[in-house]
Amino acid sequence: MKKIISLSINGDQYEVLVSPNQTLLEVLRDQLGLMGTKRGCDLGACGACTVLINGEAYLSCIMLAMDGVGKEIQTIEGLTQTRELHPLQEAFVKEGGIQCGFCTPGMIMTAQAILNEAEKPSEETIKRKMAGNLCRCTGYKKIVTAVMSAAGQAGEEV
Amino acid sequence: MEKELNIVGKRVPMHDGVAKARGTAQFTDDLVFPGMLYGKILRSPLPHARIIHIDTAKARKLSGVKGVVTGQDIPDRQYGIVPKARDEYALAKGKVRYIGDDVAAVCAVDLEAAEEAVSLIKVEYEELPAVYDPLDSIKEGAPVIHEGVDHNTSMSIRKEFGDVKKAFAESDHIFEDTFYSQAVNHAPMEPHAAVAQYDHLGEHFTVYSSTQIPYFLRRNLASTLMVPESKVRIIKPKVGGGFGQKIDMFAKDFCAAWFARETGRAVKFVYERDELFISTRQRHPMYITVRTGMKKDGTILAQQFKAHADGGAYNSTAPTMIALSCYFLMIPYRVPNLIYEGHHVYTNKPVGGAMRGHGIPQARFAVERQLDLIAQRIGIDPVELRVKNSIQAGEPHPAKFIINTCGFSDCLKQAAEAIGWKEKRGKLPKGRGVGIAGASFPSGVSNMSHISSGSVVQIGQDGAVNVLSGAADIGQGAETVIAQIVAEVLGVTMEDVRITAADTGTCPMDPGTFGSGVTVRAGNAARLAAEEARKKLFKYVAKHLDVERDDLAVKDRFIYLKSSPGKGMSFKDALKGYQYADLPMPIVGRASWFAPSTEPTTLFKDDGNFAPNYSFMAQAAEVDVDLETGQIKLLKMVTAHDCGRAINPMLVEGQLEGSVVGGMGQALYENVIVEKGQVMNPSFLDYGFPTFLEMPEIGAIEVETDDPIGPFGAKEAGEGTQLSPAPAIVNAIYDAIGVDFKELPVTPEKILEVLEKGGGK
Amino acid sequence: MKLPKFKYLEPTSMKEALSLLGKEGSAKILAGGTDLLVNMKHKIEVPSVLVNIKRIEGLDYVKIEDGAVRIGALTSLNKISQNPFLKEKVPALTQAAVKVGSYHHQSMGTIGGNICQQNRCKFYNQSEWWRSTNGPCLKVGGNICHVVGKKGACYSTYCGDVAPALLALEARIVLQNKKGLKESSLESLFSGKGLAPLKIKAGDILTEIIIPETSLQGRSSYRKFANRESIDFPIVGLALWVSPEKKEYRAAFTAVDRRPLRAKAVETFLNQKDLTEERIEEAGALASKGAQLVKTSLYTTAYKKKMMGILLKQALKETTRGYRS
To answer: Do A44 and A7 fall within a single domain?
Structure first.
């Protein structure tokens, strides 16, 4: 039985008609047109679907949309809503941390969650916390450089 | 060649990097059309069976279902990227040949209904005996997988160069070893997807597909749908990685188009992750036996190869794979006498197809491992042995390759030095070791019938440049590189250039992203088209300024006299003047580029130059083997790469770094595990390719050789580096623990087993 | 992959939750969802009723009461792994929590959920279509175990990281139902049977985990041996707790049996005696005693057996550094 729920996404309030068996990823993409969050495996093993729930990194493909009620949801579309890029986005572009771009939104959101926890995370912490985000193109090196750079640790050897 | 360059050779960010970082870059699954339907495919649960009956009644009746199709409903047309190897139907006809084979498809108003409908289709099968190992498959009496194909061998190649018998007779040493390279899945992050629309008035299809080969896809789709090619338009949105897995038409393309025509609505198919592991493509597992004849000083006199490739249930790119595997044994080392016997064998398993390196990584593993084995046996340093046998630019080649530039020995020396070879090889404590391996790769294949690329460059009234190219950017940055080339030629900025690419309805043809040919082929086409446009503009400027056209150059949007650089006119003024003076139209340059070759050749008939140019690379690896647990850590890998000249060093580094980790995965982490025809690990969880935490330290060294054929001297950079990291790592494991592995992957379990039996130094 | 349909209930109080669970016999509890929802997509767990307990207040805490640590079952693994007191006093638990899956799983996942995760098997954790090749196995209502090719018993393996750490810490659990609270050992929660791995009745909720005071006075660690350093389930996981003063040793393994397992043979051998290099070796040889290793994963039982010994020895050596004779 479908139900109307209220979701707060990127600072906007959405009233959506959902079935309990819909994941947050489905609602974001199929109902709200927020296509930035990607579906890489649909089983929580690759991080492409990462969104922030109250600032923490969650896998939206294994989360019920219903569980999003009452939380602050942030997707890649919410990182910047102006012409200016978020520092993480700038860094990813500048450092070449993007190739095909499919893992990118998930990578950036996870990086944001890490920065939400600590201002200047160590390289070791960044790698450990991003290890749930898979990438097949870059070999990860330039992504680490980008996150370190955005965190204000440019120049540290990767 | 050109000396001072403005944009080529610079670390320019990807032209669509911002869109990707904002999440606005559109991949196929991001496309939504009004009234769009969703499709799902029913797959065979059996490895080998005759299809007796398919009952779709319940599926058709399910609320929300708009169409059901089976192999019986579709034309009798097989498809395949290589004409002589077409053996697959879009949906199986008569029988299924592997677990995962496409049997039927449905489309419905939502995914839920589509999934349910698929589960309601009942198929009656008559199970047939199945065969899983190619060495069993070729035997007399093995189950016949494709009628009319003897010994289940769909493709064989036997090539001889020189006089191998004589060379072996003259050899001081003869060594023979057998190697095995495993099934690897590309695992691109974006699942395969297609969205199709059909226009009933014009009777034409528009298909958005996550593909590497828009033009081949058009051909295959038109052929299997039995419509003229002109009625099919393929548009490639952003593609989230391919690595070769998206080279081929798939059921999702055909069925989306089919249903679009049947229903009149847009239809979307997106594969699930396990479908990618089971029902798309994988790297061919291969058994390779190498026999090498050598002088006692280490000079290679002859090599003889026998290879069996496990093709799985269908051909896909079999002929190309086998040919590449063969021809690329004659480079980067001098092998004056060679026999290659290769067989592509069917088994009732997932299908082998093109995967980064396409048959060469397997061969490279065999050759590079054996070189190290030989180095041990005859007491020569592995780097020395390789440098000694290294090809040099300009030498005559047994298969008639034209090698204008070759930085291979430099790559070997620099990689070895960067890893600290002299200080480390044979000298590190037990458990630590270094290894080296090398390879070469073509920048696209010329030697494969008509492989050419076209481009149109238009300079608009306001100075903006619009480029049409067939190049299929799948994340490697092809569009960015082409934009750089055009911007360089026209003296404008990256922001002035916009690329429209890989739309078969509007862009000139390009074969696609495979064989690492895009930069050279599409890059050259774009360069020539830009030069033609520039020529037209310069003709006007020369007349206007009353100077010789040859004296003109352009940089930073300013057209100036080479003889007197301060004099000239701005790009903008030149354009304006051009339009008022004569033709008030955009300036258009168009060109196509086809690799120069002395004779047209096809892979199986004659020899000739295989590719416009060849890249060379060497990797040196340092590993740490935990002697207690067997775990192997790749500490560092240095890759030295001769890609001629890097059009964009940052993008080239990206390719090298990604290839190193891909090669590491092949060596240590990845294996498509199949039991009785069933893929046991079809998930990101169980098919464990490297994460951030497995990342080694990566060093990329660019060895510049400035090739005469490549645009601005460039050669390929996208595939070559994934050819030899695996043997470099396994060679390093030998140095670390004194154990020779001849099979991939090398896992902690295997290491422990060997160490326990007392193996190793 | 769509989740199957279910009746969804979202109680906002314990009372409401217990009442609902009491009524709906075949309801499943939804906590973090990282295990259950994946299984539901695979259609190996298809509850007709799902009770989401995350709206219940008062189950998310880490507190000290009378010297013992009490952790609410809905406390996230992330929170646990970062708690300074827990890191200092019971590192086995925090080390286990930080090794579960990936960073995301630790944000989403709860300690209760992780303890109660479903058992695993390479024939079981697959999509519905994939499983149609072999037909249903015992665990999904069929009548054969595909691993051993026989009827009789299900050999699915327990693979959670947190449970062995808690076993080594001799943790206790609190189960609540309509009738009240019941405290018991964590060990008693596990049936040792692949079909129904947890001895939890319909209507029960795991609400609290208690680590006794005595366990805080020891040295502990958790070692996870897996293919990769993130995302993966353990090939073998080992938690070790040692009290050097009392010469008391507790070792618990995961991914080696139908339930997480205290290595009783090892403990009996080591307890009350001095630890020497030889004794560590001998203990290593006893590591797999009592574990019923069955090849339910991609790794051989021989390899798991080997790794059990190796991990135990490594853990013993490291945890007892500085006072070994």
So the answer is: yes
